[in-house]
Amino acid sequence: MDEPSEKSSRFSGIFNEAKTRAGKASDKVRATAGKTANELKVAERINQVRTTVDTNTPEFVKSTAGKVGSSFDTVTGAKLLEEVRAMVVLQEKYNDVLATKLEEALQRIEILEATLSKGTQR
What is the pTM for the complete model shown? Predict the structure, then answer.
């Protein structure tokens, strides 16, 4: 039979081996957990960015499209052309009113001249 010191030595070796293996396993678990925690942080950040992009993109696109459209109108002169057309329409209305008033005034002058010429011929 084995003596007590031999048994103690054998158990001590087994214990040390178990302790070493447990330490290595613990290190692996910590490394994996740390890596997993970092991966979770990255995944969470990616989800935040996606949410932000999904939420803000339509507003950003509308805003940018409005600015680009406005600039495009300025560069191409479309806005200026539209304003000129509006002024021409307004000028045509004024011209029609003035022509009507002038025609009325000329008719009154004609009547007055006819009345005066009848009065002087007598």
Answer: 0.36
